[in-house]
Amino acid sequence: AQPVHPLDLFGIDTLLSDEERDIRDTVRSMGDRELRPHVAEWFETGAIPARELALSLGELGVLGMHLQGYGCAGTSAVAYGLACMELEAVDSGLRSLVSVQGSLAMYAIWKYGSEEQKQQWLPGMAAGRFIGCFGLTEPDAGSDPGSMRTRATRDGSDWVLNGTKMWITNGSVSDVAVVWARTDDGVRGFLVPAGTPGFTRNDIKQKLSLRASVTSELVLEDVRLPADAMLPQARGLSGPLGCLNEARFGIVFGALGAARDCLETAISYAADRTVFDRPLAGFQLTQQKLADMSLELGKGMLLAVHLGRLKDAGRITPERISLGKLNNVREAIAIARECRTVLGANGITLEYPVLRHANNLESVLTYEGTSEVHSLVIGGAVTGIAAFR
Ligand code: TGC
Ligand code: FAD
């Protein structure tokens, strides 16, 4: 019999195709070689080389990898999830860069854009030559995007946009922003190129989480756009929410990457660390921690692969994505915090990844729908009663 791998007690590998394993291993080795050696410094300084990273990730083929055509690979949903997992095993900020580019900005254009918009933006975004961002959240409208204030009004055939978007990943480094705004015809999406007069971006500083990621405010003051800047196929809130389904799916896998990296670190640390004249790993309390975390990691992977297979079969629903996002992010942050205890004082430094991951996961718990929002989506599905309004 094959020896059981400590990080895959469930044998999840046996559920994956050769191609999926290959993609996962390729992303993992690129991450270990090119990203991991720098990530603690990026986190500490709060600065990432976003342009270089986008080009490297484009070369790796992960930007919009689950989309068909326009320079995108058209992989399975599971393969995309596994790539998210390997990137987030390095840092949630890197997975965020890829999620926002591929699942939010590119997906919005791919799903709702005109043929001209797709040709103009998608091949360059897949290659990492153009960076995109996705502006839905506002200073006073996060969980309830339906209360957004950003407005687009018509002036002749032009559109004029006014408003502020907040907490926008990739905001200040983007070449194009997908901005959602209220119109007389409901919520519509607009492509706002960087450099458009009246469009400014300000970075959010002093973050204690997701420091290896750019997070910005977008300010739109009488931003004039031509008629063809609007995404023709998105009408109403279901437009942006349709994009969120894609990004949330990536997080179902991604968060477990951060958890796995913490667990791997804790297992190795506990084996090396001597306490009371014995390896820390030999104590029953430690083994219980490691066993429980392995169990939750494996259960989360089973859920992720199951949801991925449903997505590939066209049978995923928003409620199912909520189950995955709620469970896997909640368990990932619990694992990261528990691993921090195993490392004792060493756990609080950037020499080890565990508290960096735990801090990042605070953002992951909040963005793409908070735990409370996903609980209420599930509650609505169970009871038939919508609790939001
Ligand atoms: P509600 O009245 O339920 O629905 C309005 C319209 O939207 C449709 N809909 C969906 N469509 C597609 N996918 C979904 N998941 C959908 N959920 C709802 C719905 O059918 C309806 O369509 P129609 O045609 O009848 O108009 O909407 P509500 O206003 O009550 O709000 C529901 C709620 C709270 C679940 C939703 O607004 C929500 O998900 N809030 C959380 C917001 C959020 O997640 N924001 C994320 C911003 S982006 C981000 O965080 C990027 S982080 C960076 C990274 O990913 O790394
Ligand atoms: P609020 O909506 O004000 O919620 C505050 C608290 O109230 C939360 O605990 C929430 O769960 C709770 N709450 C809300 N409604 C209810 C209810 N009905 N019942 C009980 N509790 C409730 N947005 C984008 O558009 N694009 C991006 O690229 C992007 N990137 C981000 C990057 C980072 C690092 C972060 C932190 C956020 C990002 N966001 C982005 C914003 C993110 O999506 C929002 O922060 C999130 O949707 C929550 O909104 P909020 O922060 O305004 O919190």
From TrEMBL:
Transmembrane segments: none annotated. Residues 235-380 form the Acyl-CoA dehydrogenase/oxidase C-terminal domain. Keywords: FAD, Flavoprotein, Oxidoreductase, Transit peptide. It catalyses: glutaryl-CoA + oxidized [electron-transfer flavoprotein] + 2 H(+) = (2E)-butenoyl-CoA + reduced [electron-transfer flavoprotein] + CO2. The lineage of its organism: Bacteria, Bacillati, Actinomycetota, Actinomycetes, Kitasatosporales. Pathway: Amino-acid metabolism; lysine degradation; Amino-acid metabolism; tryptophan metabolism. One of its GO terms (biological process) is fatty-acyl-CoA biosynthetic process. Its cofactor is FAD. Belongs to the acyl-CoA dehydrogenase family. InterPro entries: Acyl-CoA_DH_CS, Acyl-CoA_Oxase/DH_mid-dom, Acyl-CoA_Oxase/DH_mid-dom_sf, AcylCo_DH-like_C, AcylCo_DH/oxidase_C, AcylCoA_DH/ox_N, AcylCoA_DH/ox_N_sf, AcylCoA_DH/oxidase_NM_dom_sf. It comes from the Bacteria. Its EC number is 1.3.8.6. PANTHER family: GLUTARYL-COA DEHYDROGENASE, MITOCHONDRIAL. This is glutaryl-CoA dehydrogenase (ETF). GO terms for molecular function: fatty-acyl-CoA binding; flavin adenine dinucleotide binding; glutaryl-CoA dehydrogenase activity. It is an enzyme of class 1 (oxidoreductase).
